[in-house]
Every structure is written in C-alpha cells, then in structure tokens.
Amino acid sequence: MPHFSVRLDDDLVRRFDAAAASRGGRSRLLRRLMEEAAQASLPEPVAAMPAGRTGKLTLRLGETDLARLEAEAAVLGLSRTQWSVAVIRRRLHRRPQLTPPEAFAFIEVQRELRRIGVNINQIARAMNTAVLEGTVLDLEIAQVAAFADEIRAHLTGLTAAFEGNLAYWSDGT
Questions:
Q1: pLDDT above 90 as % of the chain
Q2: What pTM, to 2 d.p., does this model score?
Q3: Distance in angstroms (rounded) separating the CA atoms of residues 131 and 109
Q4: Continuous H helices in 79-133
Q5: Phi, psi of 98 (to 5 degrees)
Q6: Do the beta carbons of residue 158 and residue 106 sit within 8 Å?
Q7: How many CB atoms lie under 10 A from the CB of residue 158?
Q8: Per residue in 10-34, pLDDT tens?
Q9: Burial class (CB in 10 A: 0-12, 13-18, 19+), 86
Q10: Helices 80-93 & 134-171, crossing angle to 10 degrees?
Q11: How far apart are alpha carbons 20 and 38 in whole angstroms?
C-alpha cells in the first residue's frame, strides 16, 4: 500500500489535529479529503515553474550508497544535499563548484594577483617618469621579471586548482 509523507508547520498540524479529532482522527480525515479531491474535477496542472522559483528533488538511496554519499560530502565539509547539488550544477552548467574553503583560497589568490599588479603598475609608472640608468634600471627590470614569474606561478596553480575541481565534480576523482 502506498504511503504519503508531507511536511507541515506546527500550527497547521495543531489545527488539523483539532479538526480531525471529531472526525475519526488524522488518517481517517486525510483519506476522506483525498477521496473527495479525487472525485472533484481538478484544475489543469501548471505547465512550468515560474522563473526564480526552486523545485525539490527527492532521492532514495540504499544504505551503502547513502553512507558513501555522506562520507564523500564530509570530506569536503558539505552536507549530502550540498554535495549532490554541486554534482548536478557541475554537470548542467559545466562550471567549477567551489566549497567554502576553495572559494576562500581563490579569493586569496585573486587578492595576491591584484597586489602584484598594483606593484607592477607602480614600477612601470616610476620607470616612465624617471630617467633611470645603469644599476637602478637593472634592479627595476629584475623586479618586474620577478613579479612576472610570480604571476605565472599563481596562474599555473590557479589553472591546476580549477582543473582538479572540474575533474572531481565530473567523474568523482
């Protein structure tokens, strides 16, 4: 026999139970209401969900799969729902799905790259406004080269991080 389950707020449950008490209890009243609804002509279902609304997806997993899902999500510090949504969004949107620590790390890399960019701009401005000769110019050029190397290293790390993130959400590795 099929089983229905609904989530209701406490106030609605209290009021329903009060109404159901004089009608044979919760189950009997629910069955009668469902029978009446099945006999009535119902309006046509809505074709599509309005923009901006969310829908609910319910999954039933076996004990083993659920345990593996919870373990996998825990490794990333996510709930099983957050982990499942990230897998679905990765597949649908083909974009990285960042956990909070990953997002924080990417923000830090972005800050560092900005800091380096500001320093390079200051050096370029100084080189354009001053007449530098000999050792001073060589030092400035060396510093710009060091910054360029640092930027390349950060970008390589950033690329590797994004590729790892995409690979994880794509095939579970």
A1: 6
A2: 0.45
A3: 34
A4: 80-93, 100-129
A5: -95, 135
A6: yes
A7: 15
A8: 888 888 888 888 888 888 888 888 8
A9: buried
A10: 110
A11: 19
